[in-house]
Amino acid sequence: TFDPGGMEYLRTLKPIFTVTQHWPPVSRIQARYCSKLASAVDTVREKKKTVDKFKSRLSSGPSFQDFVKGLPPFVYLALNVCGDAKGVLWLIVAVYFETYGCQMNVNDTEIAWSILQKKGYQRTAHLSEADVVLLVTCSVREKAEQTIWNRLQQLTAMKRKRLKTHTPMKIGILGCMAERLKMELLEREKLVDVLAGPDAYRDLPRLLAVSDGGQQACNVLLSLEETYADVMPVHHAPRGHSAFVSIMRGCDNMCSYCIVPFTRGRERSRPVRSILEEVRMLSDQGVKEVTLLGQNVNSYRDTSDEQFCGSDATKLSRGFKTVYQTKRGGLRFSDLLDQVSRIDPNVRIRFTSPHPKDFPDEVLHLIAERGNICKQIHLPAQSGSSRVLKAMRRGYTREAYLDLVRNIKQIIPDVSLSSDFISGFCGETEDDHQQTLSLIREVGYNVGFLFAYSMRKKTHAFHRLQDDVPVEVKQRRLEECITVFRGEAERVNAALIGSTQLVLVEGESKRSAEDLCGRTDGNMKVIFPKEDVHVQPTAFSTVPISVGDYVLVKILSANSQSLRGRALSLSSLRAREVHCRTPPEDQRDEHVAHTQP
């Protein structure tokens, strides 16, 4: 049986088939049916005769169970007969998402789901219940694409089994891989029913409808304008404590190794009013941390309003340049960051992924001064060799990058830095590799993302350079970079031993249900025992710690990947400056420096 309150929702869903038989009008039947009133001149006896005839025909015909026989239990159906007594059978379509790659793909999943939800689709967390499986994909490296190909083989085998017992299952590819490999995806063993590129999510309902007819459906057109500004994403953050907010899409940097400009198109920024509206909504929902997203997030430039369209040139970090002509006008990243951080002083603001060229001093000073903007900057270097950086078309030298690092540390003394590095890029020599190792040692990052180079079609490197570093050399250099990186990260993290850090609680530790975990302002993972804490540092009463709480944690030990400590009390961002500080070196607890979490 169905909840009558859900009938209005069911009327929005698409019909599977209709029963064209028109029944004679009756005045009284079961509650789920309605009818036109009989003519006023009908006698009571004629009415009863009509009803009896209707019941007789209904009892001898096919039942509701005959219609739904063989369908899986997760398909919800309703028989809705009303008005002219025309029967309609409705199907609620269950959608299952799998997301691969960067945070932008997480945000794309939320956008795609928002669009489908408004069209009456339901989301399921169980693959076995899915009528439609959508993979949100990444094309940055070959390994990421191979993961999708392997997954498609698994899903296709499941799809073939489904045809024997259940309703057909549709498979769709969304995101970067859909755009880059559209022909191969459509033709290779017919693995995919639907393809939608990063700018085509609005078209998903139509594409799925086309695939219902047995045809493959595809839209991978890139747009110069699409930002999904009017689509409010349906956020699925862990228990609602954090959320990603997309502020721009695409990239104009054209680094020689990068596929992003070809899979996600040119830069375009979402109007500031739309971003502020989403952040306010998240704050009202109790979200404690918002991460602003973009392929080149700090190149944000809103030109949607005439008042923003001035002639001022975009400012770059000193010593940096671009492959494109200087852009003018628009509301800049520093303006957006300022407005977003003012919405709720108790909501942390992060941003990723930036480009080093877009850190003028006004951005750095804002980060330093505003209490709820995290003192953590992702600063992708890619290489420590000026020669390789030139081949990568990064727009800076090793010296300019190190000058920027020194400027950041001077303006934001307690800053935490993270970075990206590529090992084995085209033409990289052993000397180039050694320069990268020395850069890692000199800067002192606490988080890093390191990969061996993987050439991508369409890129500048594919057309102009030779992928001439052997695979085994790439792997050896990558392992050496990782070893040096971990050593420096452990040194940087050890400096926090003895300090008190404000931690946003994310949930239980993956390794032990007896521990909780969260992240510091510097984006370091902290693990601590699940114990009741004081409501305030000076209070006597204690309370359990909940997900989404800000907690003061005394750091007792550190390794290259995480910190371990003990929770002291609940707190807030506003109280952070009073309680969170790194102790002088001679006051640290040296005896716990080498304890592993």
Automatic annotation (TrEMBL):
Transmembrane segments: none annotated. One of its GO terms (cellular component) is cytosol. PANTHER family: CDK5 REGULATORY SUBUNIT-ASSOCIATED PROTEIN 1 (PTHR43020), MITOCHONDRIAL TRNA METHYLTHIOTRANSFERASE CDK5RAP1 (PTHR43020:SF2). One of its GO terms (biological process) is regulation of protein metabolic process. It catalyses: N(6)-dimethylallyladenosine(37) in tRNA + (sulfur carrier)-SH + AH2 + 2 S-adenosyl-L-methionine = 2-methylsulfanyl-N(6)-dimethylallyladenosine(37) in tRNA + (sulfur carrier)-H + 5'-deoxyadenosine + L-methionine + A + S-adenosyl-L-homocysteine + 2 H(+). Residues 237-491 form the Radical SAM core domain. Residues 93-213 form the MTTase N-terminal domain. Keywords: 4Fe-4S, Iron, Iron-sulfur, Metal-binding, S-adenosyl-L-methionine. The gene is CDK5RAP1. Its EC number is 2.8.4.3. Belongs to the methylthiotransferase family. MiaB subfamily. HAMAP family: tRNA_metthiotr_MiaB (MF_01864). This is Mitochondrial tRNA methylthiotransferase CDK5RAP1. Its cofactor is [4Fe-4S] cluster. Pfam families: Radical_SAM, TRAM, UPF0004. InterPro entries: Elp3/MiaA/NifB-like_rSAM, Methylthiotransferase, Methylthiotransferase_CS, Methylthiotransferase_N, Methylthiotransferase_N_sf, MiaB_methiolase, rSAM, rSAM_horseshoe. Residues 494-569 form the TRAM domain. GO terms for molecular function: 4 iron, 4 sulfur cluster binding; metal ion binding; tRNA-2-methylthio-N(6)-dimethylallyladenosine(37) synthase activity.
